[in-house]
Specification:
The structure is a homotetramer of 306-residue chains. With 306 residues, chain A is of the alpha/beta class. Chain A contains 13 helices and eight strands. Helices cover 50% and strands 13% of the residues of chain A. In chain A, helix 1 (10-21) links the parallel strand 1 (2-6) and strand 2 (25-29). Chains in contact: A-B, A-C, A-D, B-C, B-D, C-D.
């Protein structure tokens, strides 16, 4: 299929590369230039405007937040203005339920189709095309988008025809991950102050009741004093918790654990700055308990998680 | 080995039965009579006093809480008075860190040995002898207790020579389980009020990032409106969270998520009574969000979990 | 002074009336027509557009939320477009710190002056001209606005030249009030379930350590089963807590009590709907404790508080 | 009246002195000797055992916690053993509801009378005989104790014939005070990080909506960086919050704000040690927000509060 791809951050690059390798004609675009070298080498065309990547049957977006998506969609010469009638906007960004609902309305009014296809997984998983995809939208649109989703992910789960449900499921998943950081963090702080070796405790947990990569891999970060390499930045994790809370506000669902995670992110950002992995909130229980953690700088470079 | 076993509740019965089947000479005792029929049929002797079961090389206790253990150990004609010098008290009950420390001191003063060997698993797992055992105590005592622990569990993890560490690890594990109920409960409330099918959401989670029996089995209880069968009673789960918080008080570890779970248990007991499974706290997010849950009576009968 | 006044809700009506009575030439405007009768009778002129009320030396706005203020200021033919250079926009609405900062920038760019003059007090206090006023802005602007502020309030406190500080102080004050509802609510639930008469308990508190109208008047609402008359609607109180949390996010200040209040408002709105006084969050502790509260409809009519 | 007085800490000394000055024949006793000099000078007799102070018509106790009271009452040669039938034990200590209920039962079984007469106020207020007294117990016992209560306090409020209600009311009052520390602390952290002068903010609050000594005096401590002089030690305040939570557990009342205060005390004790005033929890919001507070040692000497 002739498609466009907007958003070449750590996740988007891998997704776009897989689409190219799968034989699709992909025109890529990034607001900040200079990230397209590898993709060109693979055979991608590089567009110099949003409009230019909206000529095909679909455009996929993978951007950081609501503001970025709004800018690319609603801006002058944006997707809404440029995408042909009947073509599909596949939005993979982690955005608010409210914006997803607005995108659904706007694209419908413009005669375009819209699929929310959020993804679970870290950059290395995206590079391998093994993301978990959560898709929602009109049946025909999801069906027509399926060949593309099959390329970026190893499995697609459908949540009906209201696109924003895919966004809500994604936010809920990130909430559940952050909840693991907090619960592990408190348990680790407790046993650590009792003199138990943190790695032995984690080894015990992850070979008995919690034999799961999420607990094993994030636990391995949380038990360390030194900051983890930044796989998913704390400000983005914080944004997702805020969006989950905002969804809860609109749906009238009190989420006290989400509120606790919210405060943990504020505490982390206040004390350690922006440049931390989101799992660092799992060290704050030890910090509040008077142990010294997190002094050094985070390690650099890629790393594999979940 | 010639051993005693005190506490024939749902967990203790299975553990004692396995010890008998493994060829040990087991004298059993329960404060409330009438629970020994099956064990006698297997070949256990039935003692009519604590003193009577303290004649062998070891006595294992599996009781409901601190009060029960204190009564059996420190009471007139209790274990402390009756157990021979050098014999081992193996305590598997989920009790406080403080009581475990006190037991260690008391048994040492009496020339007896003491091993804390807490267990993870539900009654059906105990019946199969497949519990996860967490053991701590003096090296020789743990070594001598090992043949018994190997019978009741499929794996024993050691946490050094301070017995109360085994209790702290057990409390931390139950804290982590209850944390899963809360996080799942909030996420489920959120998607449920958005109209997403709860079982489809759970199926998605447990086939992607959270592919773990804990999430799958407890999630299956939490998504239901009707109360779950009581596998582990809410008052016992509440006790364990209180003990985790008490350990945090003593060690100076603030545990805000444990505090939230505490309040959930109080809310559950206030509104639904004592006779509920502890996982029912995972439905309170939906309740607070205005959905009606939990009206009916819990189902009866055994069931398999974790 | 020749001034405009926009926003004739329960608070604004009283403020505008006092300005008229004090001899100022006031042109009033409300987006929803039909609220100007009493003010005309007092001698106010009625404008039919925002532009029409921006002809004088100052325009005062008293609106429900950020959206209303944005619409009136930034909209086509809004205050920004219509207010003469050098004239003052006095904003009394409870809005976000971020919008107040944006207003400061925008008015400065347009050569206009801007004073944030938030107010504490309920409609009956506004009608008497006895509000507490919190003012911030450039010294000359605050000085020129002072005669108007002296009319609407009995006391003005200054917080320097950054207007948004007046907004932050207002949000903090409402946070403190809502905190009183929660703390009183939990204490009342505790003694109530112990069988202590709630009004005797409140009488005790407010004649000993908590001898303050805030505790006495709101306490009198919270101890009742029936919903209180709606003096300040729960959705508005909820908005203020959200704005306080948002300010905390931007300033990197974790506010766990604000987070708790947030969840209380969500619980209230989920279970009782929008049409409740904000102090009703103080009854949720009793609700969660299994007592039945809040079934009936709130009483109607004016009432006096704080 | 011929009475005994046990517990000559900072509060008890003042209370006993006032009883002596009022003309009662007072025999005092303290477990730790050497605190009786001033009282002897006033005319008090000094007893050398609990039994010795139990010879009169009443004995008043003012001790630090449950353990101290249990030791003095239930110990060999304790109050229960020594107090004549019909004489009154007046307990002013801040103890648990459960212990107070147990005291009521025990004294009744021994044919003695029991009044819980808890007190609100700091040592300087006790010295002036101006405490607020909260009394509960059998009508005749409270009536007979009244002349003594009138000496130690300026006002006595009655809460019926179940003594533990006086304890619950006392715990609720301390919960409300600590809630003020937290709410003030969060508001102060918020405005402080925005650059607002903390003392100007406090002055504003306490001259408008929160014109109350509790807010003014504790606020003045909380806005400072340096630790406050220790008027009421943090471990005692922590104990009272734990007792309030324990009462909530028994009565099935979820108290999330009490839970938050609990965690604040743990955080304070973990990071600053035992030797801090309980109001220091009000500085933790600033600490968590990354501001540096509390480094220095607390000032010494008496000070006046509430």
């Amino acid at each position: 299929m002739n498609i466009g791809f907007i958003g070449l951050g750590r996740m988007g690059r891998g997704m776009a590369a897989n689409l190219v390798k799968a034989g699709h004609e992909v025109t890529v675009y990034n607001r900040t230039p200079g990230k397209t070298g590898d993709l060109e080498a693979l055979g991608a065309r590089v567009g110099i405007s949003v409009a230019e990547v909206c000529q095909g049957g679909a455009v996929m977006t993978m951007l950081a937040n609501d503001e970025a998506v709004e800018s690319v969609v609603f801006g002058k010469d944006g997707i809404l203005a440029g995408l042909p009638k009947g073509a599909i906007h596949i939005s993979s960004s982690t955005i608010s339920v409210a914006l997803s609902d607005r995108l659904a309305d706007s694209h419908a009014s413009a005669g375009q189709r819209y699929v929310a296809a959020t993804v679970l997984g870290r950059p290395d998983v995206a590079a391998k095309g093994e993301l978990f995809v959560v898709a929602a939208g009109a049946e025909d649109a999801v069906r027509d988008a399926a060949p593309l989703l099959d390329v970026i992910g190893k499995k697609t789960t459908h949540f009906g025809d209201q696109p924003s449900r895919a966004n809500l499921v994604k936010l809920s998943s990130n909430f559940l991950l952050a909840s693991v950081f907090e619960s592990l963090g408190e348990a680790i702080a407790l046993v650590s102050k009792a003199g138990i070796d943190r790695s032995e405790f984690l080894e015990f947990l992850t070979t008995t009741l919690f034999d799961l990569p999420v607990y094993r891999n994030y636990g391995a970060l949380i038990i360390e004093d030194a900051p983890a390499p930044v796989g998913f930045a704390a400000p983005l994790g914080f944004k997702d918790i805020r969006l989950a809370i905002a969804a809860g506000e609109a749906l009238r669902v009190p989420m006290p654990l989400a509120g606790l995670l919210h405060d943990r992110f504020v505490e982390l950002l206040a004390n350690e700055g922006e440049d931390r992995d989101w799992s660092e909130i799992g060290k704050l229980a030890r910090r509040d308990a008077g142990e010294s953690v997190g002094a050094a700088e985070p390690a650099r470079g890629d790393f594999v998680l979940v």
